[in-house]
Amino acid sequence: MDDHSDDIRRPLTQRIEVYAGAGRKQWPDDLKARIVAESLEPGAVVTDIARRHGCRPQQVHDWRRRARLGQLVLPAAAGALSFVPLVSESSPSAAAAPSSSPEAAVVTVELQGHELRCEGRLDLPC
Predict the structure, then answer these.
(1) Whole-structure pTM over 0.90, yes or no?
(2) Which residues of 1-17 are buried (b: 16+ CB within 10 A; e: fewer)?
(3) Burial 43-71 (b: 16+ CB within 10 A, else e)
(4) Distance CA 119, CA 108 (A)
(5) Integer Cα distance of 73 and 42 in angstroms
(6) Which residue in 16, 113, 121, 126 is deepest, having the highest Cβ count within 10 Å?
(7) Where are the alpha helices (H) located in 1-126, listed in sequence order?
(8) Which residue has the higher pLDDT, 45 or 101?
């Protein structure tokens, strides 16, 4: 609807706009992650994805940058492989000390009540 307020032939109408809300929209991290994951699909267009979700393309690009920096965790794709961080229970000095024992390296993986233990010597090139 066009409003030509300088047109004297039209009667003046008062126009009142009410803004409800407290400023900026807060996007939950899981929703941001889903939008970013969608934007990373082959052939995806960021502008179209942003429009579909009601946000700005600049926001999606910022969220993608945050995902690259590890500040936003993306959902795992179905059937995709993922890595689990390795946590060492030994002190850093003990882990760095060379040993001539063939059983110097021990890796134990515990998952859902099962344990996988790998023992052996790790030869690293100098």
Answers:
(1) no
(2) eeeeeeeeeeeeeeeee
(3) eeebeebbeebebeeebbeebbebbeeee
(4) 9
(5) 19
(6) 121
(7) 29-39, 46-53, 57-68, 92-96
(8) 45
